[in-house]
Amino acid sequence: MSRIRRLGGAVAPFLFFGLFATLPTLTAVSGMNPDPRPRAVEGEPCRTISKAEFLRGWREPARSFRYHGARFERRRGDADCGVGHDGLFGRGYPACTFSAPVALGVVIGRQEAYFAVGPGYTAVIEARPGHVRCVVLGAHRL
C-alpha cells in the first residue's frame, strides 16, 4: 500500500504539470504569429475575380506558396499565415493575412478562388474546406 502511495505521489505532479503545460498549446494557433486570424473579421469582402483576370497583365508569375493543405498566390505584398480552428478542438484551416497585395488566389482541393484587393490594403483569407473567405481589413500600416 505504501508503495502505491509513493508511486502516486511521484506521478501526480507530472500529470498536473503536463495538463497545465499543454493547455496553452491546445488553444494556440500554430505558426510564428500567435494569432494571425482575427477573432471577428470585420470589413469589406474582397472583390471576386476570374483566374484570367488574376493572370492578366503581369510579366512575372505570381508569388505562390503552400500552407496547411492550400496553395496561396499573391501579386505583390507579404503574407503571414497561421492555422485557425472552429472551436477548441475543431478542424484546423489555413488563415493568412496579406499586407498590400494587389490580387490574391487560393486553391484548396479542387476549389479555386481569386480576389482583387488593390494596392495599399491589408486582407485576410480564411480557406476552410468548401468555403474560402476574403476580407479587406483596411489601409496597410507599417
In short:
This protein has helices at 2-27, 51-55, and strands at residues 44-45, 47-49, 63-67, 70-75, 78-85, 92-99, 103-108, 111-116, 121-128, 131-139. With 142 residues, it is α+β, with helices and mostly antiparallel strands. The protein has a 5-stranded antiparallel sheet, with no helix packed on it. A 5-stranded antiparallel sheet has the order 2-8-7-4-3.
Question: Would you kindly provide a written description of the structure presented here, covering whatever features stand out?
Answer:
This protein has 2 helices and 10 strands; from the N terminus they run H-E-E-H-E-E-E-E-E-E-E-E. It has helices at 2-27, 51-55; strands at residues 44-45, 47-49, 63-67, 70-75, 78-85, 92-99, 103-108, 111-116, 121-128, 131-139. The protein starts with a helix and ends with a strand. Residues 21-38 have low confidence and may be disordered.
